[in-house]
Amino acid sequence: MREPHRIIHRPIITEKGTELKDQVNQYLFEVARDANKIEIKHAVESLFRVKVLQVRTLSMKGKKKRVGRSVGRTPDWKKAVATLKEGDSIEFFEGV
Questions:
Q1: Which of the four CATH numbers 3.40.50.300, 3.30.70.330, 3.40.50.2300, 3.90.1150.10 does domain 4-86 have?
Q2: How do residues 61-70 score in pLDDT, each as one tens digit?
């Protein structure tokens, strides 16, 4: 099992993520592309001291970017939606 900091890269703070947090107690994270749901669950539980009920993952495609005549792509990445037990919350998101 890898270190939790190598699995969870950063939280994703968007309008949709804030709505999910307020309505159904779900939190969004950018995670390692090769991480599975079990590793993500254990990483969130150990980093934030909460109980995770469900993890859903999405593979996001990188966007095309253009600078002058050259065209490139941003890297592909993976998003995870973690559903927490009722009553649990992550303090990092409280001021958002």
A1: 3.30.70.330
A2: 999 999 999 9
